[in-house]
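Design a sequence for this backbone.
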């Protein structure tokens, strides 16, 4: 599977979002990642479907939405209508997460599932028939700019082995604390989607940083 770089716009400068997006595109960004936070599921509030809609006007790169919200089913149709291709609810979100993932597929989206740092990889088995990718949180969700949790690397390798048994086409995304220094290792561990906020948008030269990250992950 070809590795894909997915900048998270959470770390972008919203006063000139379009400029930041253009720079990331010029560097070769493959996707863009939207961190959706409601102040309940995580202790931070970000933005909603309206920003996804604006992003669709700015870029033709595919979008994914990482739903850190307590009531994902209320918003899934809105994100898909806004043009988001891939949706990642949290497996810890509800007792009937299967229904949530089913809703994404029924609305014509591609489904992923997100695992918090303390959630075991085996938990993906219950939704495996519906998902295209698994997002491994390598920080506790809620904020950009946090330190990468070291055990996430071996967790990715463990998940890859499990997915090879269950459904080899499923891709692994890693999110949180991804840097120029660890991205190569994460590729070796088995990750396919590299979600990076600060590493991309806090760089002095965003375009060059995307190029460097892509080079380091390949
Ligand atoms: C954290 C988010 C991440 C965040 C990553 O809750 O899920 O996507 O934007 O930011 P960095 O790359 O700065 O850790
Ligand atoms: Zn995220």
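Sequence:
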């Amino acid at each position: 599977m070809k590795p894909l770089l997915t900048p998270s716009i959470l770390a972008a400068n919203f006063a000139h979002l379009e400029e930041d997006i253009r720079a990331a595109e010029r560097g070769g960004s493959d996707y863009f990642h939207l961190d959706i936070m409601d102040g309940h599921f995580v202790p931070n509030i970000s933005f909603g479907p309206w920003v996804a809609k604006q992003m669709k006007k700015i870029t033709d790169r595919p979008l994914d939405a990482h739903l850190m919200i307590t009531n994902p089913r209320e918003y899934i149709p809105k994100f898909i209508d806004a043009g988001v291709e891939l949706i990642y609810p949290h497996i810890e979100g509800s007792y009937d997460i299967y229904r949530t993932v089913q809703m994404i597929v029924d609305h014509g989206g591609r489904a992923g599932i997100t695992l918090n740092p303390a959630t075991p990889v085996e938990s993906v088995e219950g939704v495996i028939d519906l998902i295209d990718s698994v997002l491994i949180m390598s920080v506790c969700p809620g904020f950009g700019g946090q330190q990468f949790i070291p055990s996430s690397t071996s967790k990715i390798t463990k998940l890859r082995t499990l997915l090879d048994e269950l459904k080899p086409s499923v891709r692994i995304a890693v999110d949180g604390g991804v840097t120029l220094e660890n991205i190569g290792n994460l590729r070796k561990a088995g990750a396919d989607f590299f979600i990076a906020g600060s590493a991309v948008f806090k760089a002095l030269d965003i375009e060059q940083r995307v190029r460097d990250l892509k080079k380091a992950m390949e």
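The first helix runs from residue 17 to 27.
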